[in-house]
Design goal:
heterodimer; A: mainly alpha; 3-stranded antiparallel sheet; two-stranded antiparallel ribbon; B: alpha+beta
Chain lengths: ~210, ~625
């Protein structure tokens, strides 16, 4: 179990796998063989994991998109509302640490586990590519994720939530997503090394205002 | 103190001091015998001016005795000469306006006793200047505004006449004012009024009595006149006080009505008097209750805050346990899923695990990575799950309990808020009750104040200005008047005058008159045969002769008569009078003048023949027909 979070490497690994499966993109030509999904640079992975682990911030993003749509897409605010009304909101909130570039989680251990079972690969690119770490989902990993809801119902929540997170994130890169997340004052003012605090009350108030 | 004051005090039965104070206040002086009367004797009258651009000048020198201005025609200027004399003697000009415009300067030389006097004036009426010379004293400069006063003071003083105060009523009124009878008002005693005047002496009947008493020299006359004036002033003061009282009563009545209305309004609006002590006690109790409710609310809030914190902790604990449980479940599920897979690589270096080790793991159930036998984590996992389940159960129970306690605490807060609100309402009600008590207290004070004002207004305030030192002024003045009248003892002197008058009347051919009786007020009763009649009942001719006779009689009786010894008669024959009667009158006048050393008579008449019969020509200034005197 990760000493700085309450999650175990197995949980982290499953979460990363699910995010790769739903939020990854078509692998490029330089992807390793048997790659079915890729996510270039871990910044996007961290940003997606942040929304997966912080439903209040995810709901705030939905609210922001609703307002940016000139309040035309009511589904966004309703989805935000349902996210916040989840009985397991606190249970599903796993605060992340704030570091230099934003929310951060050590991924080596979880990806070691995934790599050991050929479920996912991590490729560190050369200096010319800023030593970027690219993440790849294998076909075995995709199958693992596909069977997850039936074989481990307790992990099915992550599948549904990852699907929503992927939809909210769209194709935006990790930096863009992090900049978006940093617009939230609580996130932005969190000191490095501290866990990013909740904005649940704020979000509930704003959703209440929008819904009247 | 004079005997007069003492006598008045005895008569009025008051103190001498009160009498002295009252008489002083009203200006009533005790009579003192005047100095000897001085005679007035004209010497020369002269004036200059212009008529139609041509200069005019007149001068007439006279001496003691009888002098006459006569003319054939009328309106030749005789009256102007006599009016000029009167003007210069009185300071009050009464010339015919046309004649006045012609006269630019005028002068009168005369003597008062042995003193040589002269009055000179010049200029128009509104720009008059002049001088008065008396003896060797420096001339007194006069102007149109000072001439009358200056002449009057000199004449009164030099002739030894008493200051006389009278009362002059306003037209058509009971009220009047005190007046000092000045010299001009005494001159009618010198200038015999025309036959048209019904006054025995002077020009007005109301002045006859005063002139008579003054020229007769009746003692105590001035005091009697002063007390009469004082009584009139006193009565007027009473009337004024009565009028003021009536006005005040009316004002007080209005004010009383106004105050009663205000009082009624105040009383109607004043609230029912509340129980003062009870209200204060209720306020105190309400304040205590509010304080207790506030404290109870604070306690409830603190308790609720504590239970909320306990609930939050219980929830956090529950959440933590649930999270651990979830984590355990997810980890177990994930580990179980991973456990079904065969590792392909070393998790550390990612080196592929060869097929031999993979087959060995499958056959021997040993880990292809570390070669250890597979553990069945199931027991540990289950134990751990059970443990968490128990913890969870406890935590849920604790959270439920905390929730119930928090709910109760919240309810207690709500109850405490309600109690506090009720206590606040009670306090507010009690406070308003006490406030309205204060308002009522103010209203009570206002009511008491208005009642006091009303009582004062309704009280009669008599302001008897006639009371001085508790003594009625009227009582003192009436006593003073009676005392002075008694002291006047006019009858002996009046008898002498009656005798002199009767004798003179007979000399003037009024033989039908068998008796005359004068009173102090110059009312004349005439006995004609056996019939008594009044002066006013006589014919105008008879009246005129009696007027002249009275002045002659005043001259005859001598002391104490104070007549100045100058008589001016204008047109004595203006009234119907037979030549014989006129002759007799003129003869009587001349005879009297001859007998009286200091008598001077000036006569102006058109009856030059009658004058010529009694006066030598050098005493006659005659104007022939078609000629003017000036």
């Amino acid at each position: 179990m990760n000493a700085e979070t309450t999650t175990s490497p197995e949980q982290d690994a499953v979460r990363m796998l699910i995010l790769l499966a739903f939020a990854g993109q078509e692998p490029a030509r330089d992807a390793p063989a048997d790659s079915v999904r890729e996510m270039r640079a871990e910044s996007r992975l961290h940003a997606l994991d942040f929304w997966l682990r912080n439903p209040d911030y995810l709901a705030y993003e939905l609210l922001t998109q609703y307002r940016e749509s000139q309040r035309s897409d009511l589904a966004l605010v309703r989805t935000a509302h349902s996210v916040m009304e989840d009985d397991e909101l606190e249970l599903r909130t796993i605060p992340m640490l704030r570091f230099l570039f934003g929310a951060y989680e050590e991924l080596d251990e979880s990806f070691s586990l995934l790599t050991a079972y050929d479920l996912a690969y991590v490729v560190r690119r050369p200096p010319a590519e800023q030593r970027r770490r690219d993440f790849y989902l294998t076909s075995a990993g995709a199958l693992f994720v596909e069977r997850l809801p039936t074989r481990a119902a307790v992990l099915g929540w992550y599948v549904e939530r990852a699907r929503l997170v992927a939809s909210v994130a769209g194709d935006r890169g990790g930096d863009e997503l992090k900049q978006r997340q940093k617009q939230q004052t609580k996130y932005r003012l969190t000191r490095w090394g501290n866990r990013i605090g909740t904005i649940a009350e704020l979000v509930r108030d704003e959703i209440a205002q929008e819904l009247g | 103190m004079t005997d007069f004051v003492s006598a008045v005090a005895a008569r009025a039965r008051v103190s001498v001091e009160d009498v002295a104070t009252t008489l002083a206040r009203y200006g009533v002086e005790t009579w003192t015998p005047p100095t000897a009367a001085q005679r007035l004797s004209l010497q020369k009258v002269a004036f200059e001016g212009s008529r139609d651009g041509r200069p005019i000048a007149f001068e007439w020198a006279v001496e003691r005795g009888v002098w006459a201005l006569t003319s054939e025609d009328n309106r030749v200027g005789k009256t102007t000469v006599l009016q000029t004399i009167r003007w210069l003697l009185s300071g009050r000009e009464r010339l015919n306006p046309t004649a006045r415009t012609m006269v630019q300067t005028a002068r009168l030389d005369f003597t008062i006793g042995d003193e040589q006097c002269a009055v000179t004036v010049s200029g128009p009426p509104d720009g008059l200047t002049g001088t008065i010379t008396v003896g060797s004293a420096d001339p007194i400069a006069v102007s149109d505004t000072t001439f009358e006063d200056a002449v009057g003071r000199i004449m009164i003083t030099r002739l030894g006449l008493e200051r006389v105060v009278g009362w002059q009523r306003f037209p058509r009124s009971q009220d009047g004012q005190a007046v000092d009878f000045r010299w001009p008002s005494l001159l009618p005693g010198v200038f015999v009024p025309p036959a048209s005047s019904s006054a025995l002496l002077g020009e007005r009947t109301e002045d006859a009595g005063r002139l008579f008493q003054m020229f007769t020299g009746l003692p105590w006359y001035s005091t009697v006149a002063a007390t009469n004036a004082a009584l009139s002033a006193f009565r007027q003061g009473e009337r004024d006080a009565s009028r003021r009282s009536a006005r005040d009563a009316s004002a007080n009545h209005e004010r009383s009505k106004e105050l009663e209305a205000k009082l009624g309004e105040l009383k109607a609006n004043a609230k029912t008097t509340l129980d003062g002590p009870g209200s204060a006690a209720r306020l105190a109790a309400a304040a205590n209750g509010l304080e207790e409710a506030r404290a109870a609310l604070d306690r409830a809030r603190i308790h609720a805050s504590g239970t909320a914190a306990d609930l939050a902790l219980a929830r956090d604990t529950l959440t933590s346990i649930r999270r651990r449980e979830r984590d355990l479940q997810e980890t177990g599920a994930a580990a179980g899923l991973f456990g079904t897979l065969q590792p392909k690589r070393c998790p550390r270096c990612e080196t592929a695990i060869d097929e031999h080790r993979q087959e060995q793991e499958a056959a021997d159930h040993v880990c292809a990575v570390c070669a250890r036998p597979h553990d069945d984590p199931g027991d540990e996992y289950t134990a751990r799950l059970e443990e968490l389940g128990e913890q969870l159960s406890e935590a849920e129970s604790a959270a439920e309990t905390a929730r119930a306690v928090a709910r109760q605490a919240d309810q207690a807060v709500v109850a405490a808020q309600t109690s506090h609100r009720d206590a606040s309402d009670r306090y507010e009600s009690a406070r308003r009750e006490v406030e309205s008590m204060a308002v009522d207290s103010k209203a009570a004070i206002d009511i008491a104040r208005l009642e006091g004002m009303l009582e004062e207004v309704k009280r009669d305030v008599k302001n008897d200005s006639s009371v001085s030192s508790g003594v009625s002024d009227g009582k003192v003045l009436r006593a003073a008047k009676r005392e002075a009248e008694d002291l006047m003892d006019a009858r002996p002197l009046l008898q002498r005058l009656d005798d002199a008058l009767l004798e003179t009347v007979h000399h003037l051919n009024l033989h039908d008159i068998t008796g005359v009786r004068l009173d102090r007020a110059a009312h004349l009763t005439v006995q004609v045969g056996k019939t008594s009649t009044t002066y006013s009942a006589l014919s105008p001719g008879e009246q005129y002769r009696i007027k002249v006779a009275l002045v002659v009689a005043l001259m005859r009786i001598g002391r104490p008569s104070r007549h100045p010894g100058l008589l001016v008669i204008d047109s004595p024959a203006a009234e119907e009078m037979s030549d014989a009667n006129l002759d007799r009158m003129l003869t009587e006048i001349v005879t009297l003048a001859d007998a009286q050393e200091n008598l001077q008579v000036l006569i102006a008449t058109q009856r030059s023949d009658a004058i010529a019969g009694v006066l030598p020509s050098n005493r006659i200034r005659h104007v022939p027909r078609d000629k003017r005197l000036w």
